[in-house]
Amino acid sequence: MAGARGADDDDRAARIAGVVLAAGAGVRFGGPKALAARPDGTPWLATAIRALADAGCSPVLVVLGAAAEEAADLLRTLPEAVEAVVVRADDWADGMSASLRAALRAAAALDPTPVALAVVPVDVPDLDAATVRRVIGAASVDPGTLRQAVFGGRPGHPALLGRAHWDPLAAHVGGDAGARAYLAAHDARPVEAADLSSGEDVDRHS
């Protein structure tokens, strides 16, 4: 559960929402990554949600598709203080872009509308709140913010998307491509975080 927060943290939490992209079937992985767990049994899904929530993101939009019912059951293990909202991507089989567009639509419908979204995929099991906090806290956040964690210069997650970018991004992505090309084309500000976590996404079972 997140620790005590001051007024500045409360304002940030109200303005920045989190997104976990967890809708894919995980064909190369051998099954939906939304159901995967760390060696200690902690679901990857819970790890991603807690990292965002503990960094002050609220609500956390959890995009589900393949194995959605089983994945939604995992959310019951979260502390009550964590506001996780399930977003169904019915067209999840169309690829990462479908999940991202579902998240952007859901975020735009929130009241009040967040100023930005911190977006992570479910398959970065060593993601922690410190990494998310660094990306959010690297500078002030406004609708034009475009920021991305990098690890030794390698682009990773989270990405911080100001709401002015949501419609252009939704129009830009397609197929199994996420936000990476858009971030590169629009000079997203890199935020180095290699001292905090590896940022490695897991594509296959080890």
From TrEMBL:
Residues 18-187 form the MobA-like NTP transferase domain. It comes from Clavibacter michiganensis. SUPFAM superfamilies: Nucleotide-diphospho-sugar transferases. This is Nicotine blue oxidoreductase. GO terms for molecular function: nucleotidyltransferase activity. InterPro entries: MobA-like_NTP_Trfase, Nucleotide-diphossugar_trans. It comes from the Bacteria.
